[in-house]
Amino acid sequence: MSDPRAETPADPDTDRPDDRHVRPDGVDDATVEALGTLSEALEAAEVARGHLYAFHRMSGTTDLTVGKAVDQLRDAGHADLADLIQRELVGRNVLEGRWTFQIVEEYDDGYHATFRELEQQARDRLVGGRRHLFEAEMKEDRRTHGDPAHTARPARRS
Fold first, then answer.
1. Minimal CA–CA distance to 42: which of 140, 149, 155, 134?
2. pLDDT attached to residue 131
């Protein structure tokens, strides 16, 4: 059985990266690698931010569910225990003076915003704002040139 890709040559227009994924003239390997590492760190911060939002959502669900349990305890005749849990836990700050929405806002407006701004400044200053050059060059190195399943980019849509 023959490989159907062998019968369909790659489109020459899609067999090279687009200009936004080609390093500018004069940019050395060390710079591309450093920007790739900075991008990797930003991606890790984005994952951390996602976990922080998950923490925010789960903490809210927890508080609402504890409130439901308080109502159920009260309905079951355990008002003293329901009152204790209501007073000590429902609506409690998760950190001193803060609910999770305040933690998310502080992270977003402080560390996260600063990180994104500095990463953008580094790319603007060193490679004209281009993103993912390290990965784009890795793709060029690893893909099978000329194979339609390994094109550098998608075909242009008309």
1. 134
2. 94
Cβ neighbors of 110 (< 8 A, separation 6 or more) are none
Q: Note whether residue 71 is domain-resident.
A: yes
Environment class of residue 69 by beta-carbon count within 10 Å: exposed (0-12), middle (13-18) or buried (19+)?
A: middle
pTM: 0.81
Residue 19 lies in a domain: no
Query: Which 3 state secondary structure label does DSSP give 31?
Result: helix
Q: Is the pLDDT of residue 108 over 80?
A: yes
CB neighbours (10 Å) of residue 23?
20
Give the chain's domain count.
1
- Name the residue range of residue 77's domain: 35-150
Question: Span 137-145, mean pLDDT?
Answer: 92
Q: Is residue 64 part of a domain?
A: yes
The angle subtended at Cα 29 by Cα 23 and Cα 32, nearest 5°, is 55
In a domain, 20, yes or no: no
